Amino acid sequence: MKGHQTRLDVIGNNIANVNTTGFKSSRVTFADTLSQTQAGASSTTDSIGGTNPKQIGLGTGVASIDLLFSDGSIQATGKNTDLCMSGNGLFVVKFGNDTYYTRNGAFEFDADGNYVLPGSGHFVQGWVAKDGMLATNGAIENIVVKAGKSMAAAATEKITYENNLNSAIITIASITGGTATGATTTTIAYENITDGSMVGSTSSPVTLILGDASIHTVTGGTYTVGDTYTTTPSIVTATEDLGNYQTKLTLADGTTHIVTSGIFPIGYPYSTSAAIMKMEQTITVTGTSSTASTTNPVTLTMSDGTTITETSGTYTVGKSLPVTTSVNIYDTLGKSHTLILYFTKTNVSSKDGNTWTMSLDSDLTLTSKVIDEEDGSTATVELPPMEINFTSSGKYNSGTGTFTITFTNGATSTQKVVVDFSNLTQYAGNNTIKGTGDGNAAGTLKSVSIDSSGVITGVYTNGVKKAEAQVAVAQFTNATGLIKIGGSIYQESNNSGAADIKTATDLGVTITSSALEMSNVDIANEFSDMIITQRGFQSNSKIITVSDEMLETLINMKR
After folding, report:
1. Phi-psi region of 416 (alpha: psi -120 to 50; beta: other; left: phi over 0)
2. Using one digit for the tens of pLDDT, what is the confidence trace for 170-197?
3. Same structural domain for residues 545 and 511?
4. Which pTM was predicted?
5. Sequential DSSP letters for 320-367
6. Nearest CA to 206 among 281, 133, 271?
7. In whole angstroms, what is the distance from residue 106 CA to residue 95 CA?
8. Which residue range is the domain that position 554 belongs to?
């Protein structure tokens, strides 16, 4: 009866804590007590078989009271500092110099920013981040995240581009209109017969230097060094030099000749013939680029057959139209500056992959750009075009760079920014390229959130999210061996094993924020156990009643 009373006490305690946060129910197991032996067992002999022992049991006793450490149900609370743990683990809390453990995650921050169990003031333990960096290999400490915590401004040091540039982007197939740019001129000179011939044309005339030192510019025919060139242009002027008996003739083809005899009327033809000693020809190669204007627009025929008319900018055959991106750069005072950067596909190679160029303008020509700010200051960007090379499989191959930006608003004047393209790909599809710079404006802690690994992240008014701390989790080899000390708090015992304190991820535990773990008490089972215990108690009470009646009968026999 005493054993059943103990079991009923445990059941009553379970039912009493059916709504206690993080409560773990217990159970009672019975075992019979030492039996009284009236006769021992005997073994088999040749004349008689073996006999069993004759024992009278002396009742039952409580063998153990076991803690059932199964998970309770999750109840959403909407309070972002509440935590619910699922799996084999406990939160670590501290009171003074003593360390305790609990499944009650009804935590909150106190007036000094301490993360605590508000009912008892126990400090929640974990790792506190330093400058947003968490190191979970050190000793645990009180988690402190003060309200209104400020974040200093940080200058941008690196821009990282990620996602995809469309390898199938259409390119310029041909250009009409505009002002051609990039034209080149080449002068070719032949001085001996083995060098070949030249063909004269209107666009590329040939200059002949003859053996008589005369020079002739011709626009038709084929000419070879060593051949005789004969021409009969009319005489334009004839200047006499009586002192030397010489006359200087100027012909209609622009050449001059000195003669010492003969009559040379103005307008009459003058025949000259001499061997070609040297030829020169200047060839102009028209560029593949053209600059558009409102009065002289360009028409671009793209590789897919479509046409586009532009009234500004410079365009080059074989290149794509630029992909425009923007990125924010913070100076040392935390002021944001928006920089527009252009990505243009500039080279196509079926063997070695493609090349893109990032520049300050769509023309790929600017190396310096001045940005006018709203406060009247300026920011000058020095950025030569940067090439990014991709492999034939669409992966980043090479290309990086550094540019400088100079401010006049009181921030550190010259700031260097590294550009990282290593996260870019170049597959056929869409242009999803995105540039993100580090750095930030000054801000104040606005709110916190906690993820499934127990990391407490602070959200600041400048939009930056930064890790503030991480909640520690303890795991025991035998969690049922922990000692309950009240207040949903457990203490390590000799049979629980030592606490293994790590992160929730390391121990395979899941943490749910804005929720609490309810008691794991099963009411239906507890009521069933209560009825069974009651029946056992009643049955045992009958033994006392019957024994009393037997004693009374025995006494009455004497009378």
Report:
1. beta
2. 998 888 888 877 655 667 776 654 556 7
3. no
4. 0.65
5. BPPEEEEEEEE-TT--EEEEEEEEEEEEEETTTEEEEEEESSTTS--S
6. 281
7. 16
8. 2-38+54-69+521-558
What is the per-residue pLDDT across 482-496, written as a single tens digit (0 to 9) for each?
999 988 999 999 999
Give the integer Cα–Cα distance in Å for 18 and 518.
8
Strand, coil or helix: what is 419?
Answer: strand
Residue closest to 6 by CA, chosen among 26, 33, 34, 32: 26
> Maximum CA pair distance of the chain?
193
Give how many domains the chain has, as a whole number: 4
Which among 111, 122, 123 is positioned nearest to 147, based on CA atoms? 111
**Dihedral sign computed on CA atoms, order 68, 74, 75, 81:** positive
Q: Which of 34-48, 297-311, 417-431 has the lowest mean pLDDT?
A: 34-48
Encoded tokens for 137: 């290999």
Q: How far is CA 96 from CA 92, 103, 483, in A?
A: 13, 20, 19
Residue 175 lies in a domain: no
Residue type for position 421: F
Residue 450: inside a domain: yes
DSSP output for 477-497: TTGGGPEEEETTEEE--TTT-
DSSP category for residue 148: T
Tokens read off for 105: 């995650």
Contacts of 432 (CB under 8 A, 6+ apart): 163, 164
d(CA 70, CA 519): 10
State whether 188 and 270 are in the same domain: yes
Q: H helices of 38-167, where?
A: none
The verdict on 254 and 274 lying in the same domain is yes
Judging by beta carbons within 10 Å of its beta carbon (0-12, 13-18, 19+), is residue 447 exposed, middle or buried? exposed
